[in-house]
Amino acid sequence: MNQERLMKVLLEPHVSEKGARVGELANQYIFKVVPDATKTEIKQAVEHLFKVDVEGVQLANVKGKEKRYQWVTGRRKNWKKAYVRVKAGQDISFAGE
């Protein structure tokens, strides 16, 4: 796999209450990823960047919400998120090392 592509697949970690709960119970982490990313690309990117062993990847397409800005109706962007499960005993640290 192209190293440049792997560096661009993961956009940012998605921090939420659900993400924290999933992290504690199932040893999973949630990432925002590029819309055309595949499971194998995401797995290779996480293993390359964080030096962990990935057991599985699940993907979800999130539809953007419709919002009103005074009299104008707008729409937020659609985005894709990935649930990445790492092996037991391993964890991902987002702090600068």
Q: Care to describe what's here?
A:
The protein is an alpha+beta fold. A 4-stranded antiparallel β-sheet has the order 1-2-6-3. It has a two-stranded antiparallel ribbon with strand order 4-5. It is 30% helix and 36% strand. The two termini are 26 Å apart. It has helices spanning 3-9, 17-26, 39-50, and strands at residues 10-13, 28-33, 54-62, 66-69, 72-75, 79-86. The model has no long low-confidence stretch (mean pLDDT 93). A hairpin with a 2-residue loop joins strand 4 and strand 5 (72-75). The longest helix has 12 residues, at 39-50. The chain contains 3 helices and 6 strands; from the N terminus they run αβαβαββββ. It has a single domain, classed as 2-Layer Sandwich (Alpha-Beta Plaits). The radius of gyration is 15 Å and the shape is globular. Helix 1 crosses helix 3 (39-50).
What descriptive keywords fit this protein?
two-stranded antiparallel ribbon; Alpha-Beta Plaits; 3 helices; 97 residues; alpha+beta
Q: Would you summarize the structure shown here?
A:
30% of the residues lie in helices and 36% in strands. By secondary structure, the protein is α+β, with helices and mostly antiparallel strands.
